[in-house]
Amino acid sequence: MEDPDFEHLRHKPPSALDQPRELIVACCPMRSNVNLSRIVRAASCCAVSKVVMCGNVKIDPKIARDGAEKLPISRHRSLPPVLKDLKKEGYTLVGLEQTTNSTDIHHFAFDRKTVLVIGNERMGITEDVLSVLDAVVEIPVYGMPYSYNVATATCMALYEFCRQFPGG
């Protein structure tokens, strides 16, 4: 029997962070408006400080929802110079990619001040971007195909960062 005083709230207000997140999502050029828009929406839900992107893909506001309007987004021609500048500002650059030296995300401790670098849907993170990263994490895959969709993997990585730093 359900407690008559118990109320289910469908949309409860977001939790306040103890401090702003020092997490930036940086996207290599994407092929899909849908994937990029899903990444922006997830980034907004996780209260990232900014999204950096390259390429000509557009954000669909119907998919990104409030993230398209409220989240600072910057566009650049090339990602490596931006990443090098962020590294000088003290950010740790972490790629989300399967490489020979990548670390299982379940065993990776993020730094509070992190740039999460997301690769292209087909090509992943290019060599010129990989060469400036401090670390690379991967999400284990237990079936086929060998990797998750880029937007899905980004959501998983953002969730793990937030799990490690729930208060910001």
From TrEMBL:
Molecular functions (GO terms):
RNA binding; tRNA (guanine) methyltransferase activity
Gene Ontology biological process terms, A to Z: tRNA methylation
The record's listing under Pfam families reads: SpoU_methylase
The record places domain tRNA/rRNA methyltransferase SpoU type at 23-159
Q: Which InterPro entries match?
A: Alpha/beta_knot_MTases, SpoU_MeTrfase, TRM3/TARBP1, Trm3/TARBP1_C, tRNA_m1G_MTases_N
What keywords is this UniProt entry annotated with? Answer: Methyltransferase, Transferase
Protein name stated in the entry:
TrmH family RNA methyltransferase
